[in-house]
């Protein structure tokens, strides 16, 4: 896991594992929506999730183009955008994929304002 808002495309023509910015036709809209979420999240907005084992990983403004981070061939985010015209971003909300129950109230507080800001934009 991580703490970042990722936007299409997750796949790139070269299928290199990482580092390829794969721009969609609606790139500016996706960046706008991702920033709307990230800018209200106390950790995400720093661009430094500080996840164990990935302490050096950074995301400017708390967002990333999916393929630039890591290439995912056949992902749902790209599929829905290309075939159903659905504008989706992927939210990585925690360094831990399965946070313990005791952490959920803190996660809610970290994400509440971001969710409201995102809903307002939609």
Automatic annotation (TrEMBL):
GO terms for molecular function: metallocarboxypeptidase activity; zinc ion binding. Keywords: Carboxypeptidase, Hydrolase, Protease. One of its GO terms (biological process) is peptide metabolic process. Pfam families: Peptidase_M14 (PF00246). One of its GO terms (cellular component) is extracellular space. Residues 1-122 form the Peptidase M14 domain. It comes from the Eukaryota. The active site is at residue 92. InterPro entries: Peptidase_M14 (IPR000834), Peptidase_M14_domain (IPR050753). Residues 1-20 are annotated as: Disordered. PANTHER family: CARBOXYPEPTIDASE D, B, PROTEASE M14 CARBOXYPEPTIDASE. Belongs to the peptidase M14 family. This is CBPD Carboxypeptidase. It comes from Orthonyx spaldingii. The gene is Cpd_1.
């Amino acid at each position: 896991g991580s703490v970042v808002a990722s936007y299409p495309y997750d796949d790139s023509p070269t299928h290199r594992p990482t580092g390829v910015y794969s721009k969609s036709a609606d790139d500016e809209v996706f960046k706008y929506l991702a920033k709307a979420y990230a800018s209200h999240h106390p950790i995400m907005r720093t661009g430094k999730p500080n996840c164990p084992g990935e302490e050096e990983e950074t995301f400017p403004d708390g967002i990333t183009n999916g393929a630039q981070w890591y290439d995912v061939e056949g992902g749902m985010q790209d599929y829905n955008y290309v075939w159903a015209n659905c504008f989706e971003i992927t939210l990585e909300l925690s360094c831990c994929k399965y946070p313990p129950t005791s952490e959920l109230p803190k996660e809610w507080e970290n994400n509440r304002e971001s969710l409201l800001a995102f809903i307002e934009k939609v």
